[in-house]
Design goal:
alpha/beta; Aspartate Aminotransferase, domain 1; Aspartate Aminotransferase, domain 2; 7-stranded mixed beta sheet; 4-stranded antiparallel beta sheet; 39% helix; globular
């Protein structure tokens, strides 16, 4: 009889957002017609920018033309998309070869797939609170997992003084769920640690476009030494609204080697074996995001979401609630009032004021007692949700 991957039995019974969805569904069935204001899952609410939509239409027309038809795309990505990403990095003073950029169908997919590069004996270190997919992907792979606690005492930004026993380290900055952002000095500590240990940093930069503080790094490759120890995974989902169209990119430097093997070459071999590339049409739309016109348009969308974050922070300030994030990230990470547990506060928010957030416990044990608010909703709904939340917080004093 075939043996299945029994590591799946070690996963939690249900994925965080599935559980939230079931609770919201039950509430709506019990209260038909009553509005629910969603500050939970990090899906965007604004449409794709005009530059991307125009490029998508043009690319679709290409597929109907014998002269411009595109069949299989190169598995690592179309040259025009890889060049657009490399030029974007060059604008921040980071020199990349186009061959160091790989197209992906989004950061979530890539964060799981990239584990193919490392043996199952390689231990992974995950900072908690953490995006749940980091943990689940490594559980599925049967990998040893260690955790590093993040909390108010370190600004939810742990550094490697604890010298974690790990070969892979996940860093997410701006962080999901806490919104905390690493400084250059803090990232340099991680880079030096990884190079000294022979570890590899998996740097999740999905929210880099939300950083407004010029002193903070957008990329791990702004840090000296990162080219020999880091892989950067990014996405157009939150920066440009590609949650439904699915597009991202991964940067693997030519300098990154472990065990006598070159990880860039390994990933070329992986992609050419396991994929047939990302849609030509989607890549054309994505490349348009990096044009001057596209960049101007997505900055307006990001400003819209950042204003939502300010509305949420203003409500928490008025209520005297401690929080993190918001300024350089699309998430606000608040402390639950009155010592409430995170799922307890979730239920109060849903049942009392019809506002949905994300319980911190869903991001690991260190998230208990905290709650994540997303700024990706519509402005009017976010304003209403913030007003309701303020009234609830005041009533709990």
């Amino acid at each position: 009889m075939i043996k299945v991957n029994d590591n799946y039995a070690k996963l939690k019974e249900s994925y965080l957002f599935y559980r939230i969805g079931q609770k919201v569904k039950a509430y709506k069935e019990a209260h038909p017609g009553e509005p629910v204001y969603r500050l939970g899952i990090g899906d965007v609410s604004l449409p794709l920018c005009d530059a991307a939509v125009k490029a998508l239409h043009e690319a679709a027309d290409d597929q109907g033309s014998a002269e411009r038809f595109q069949g299989y795309t190169p598995e690592p990505g179309m040259p025009f998309f890889r060049e657009a990403v490399a030029d974007y990095y060059a604008g921040r003073g980071i020199s990349l070869q186009t061959a160091e950029v790989f197209v992906s169908s989004g950061a979530s997919d890539e964060l799981g797939d990239i584990l193919d590069l490392f043996s199952r004996e390689s231990a992974a270190c995950i900072m908690e609170p953490a995006y749940p997919a980091y943990l689940d992907a490594n559980i599925m792979a049967g990998r040893k997992i260690t955790t590093l606690s993040a909390g108010p005492e370190n600004g939810f930004l742990p550094t490697p003084e604890e010298n974690p026993d790990a070969d892979l380290i996940y860093l997410c900055s701006p962080n999901n769920p806490t919104g905390a952002v690493y400084s250059r000095e803090q990232l340099k500590k991680w880079v030096d640690w990884a190079n000294a240990r022979g570890a590899v940093i998996l740097f999740d930069a999905a929210y880099e476009a939300f950083i407004e503080d010029d002193s903070l790094p957008h990329s791990i490759f702004e840090i000296e030494g990162a080219r020999t120890c880091a892989i950067e995974i990014c996405s157009l989902s939150k920066t440009a609204g590609f949650t439904g169209t699915r597009l991202g990119y991964t940067v693997i430097p030519m300098d990154l080697e472990r065990g006598g093997m070159n990880l860039n070459a390994m990933w070329v071999r992986n992609r050419t074996t396991k994929t047939n590339g990302v849609s030509y049409i989607i890549q054309k739309g994505g490349a348009a995001v990096f044009t001057p016109e596209g960049q101007e348009q997505i900055r307006k969308n990001i400003h819209y979401y950042k204003n939502n974050a300010r509305v949420l922070m203003d409500a928490l300030d008025k209520a005297g609630i401690e929080y993190w994030g918001g300024k350089n990230a699309p998430y606000v990470w608040m402390r639950c009032p009155k010592g409430m547990g995170s799922w307890e506060f979730f239920d109060r928010m849903l049942n009392d004021i019809q506002v949905v957030g994300t319980p911190g416990e869903g991001f690991g044990p260190c998230g208990e007692g905290f709650f994540r608010l997303s700024a990706f909703g519509h402005a009017d709904e976010t304003k209403t949700a913030a007003e309701r939340m303020y009234r609830l917080l005041e009533s709990l004093k």
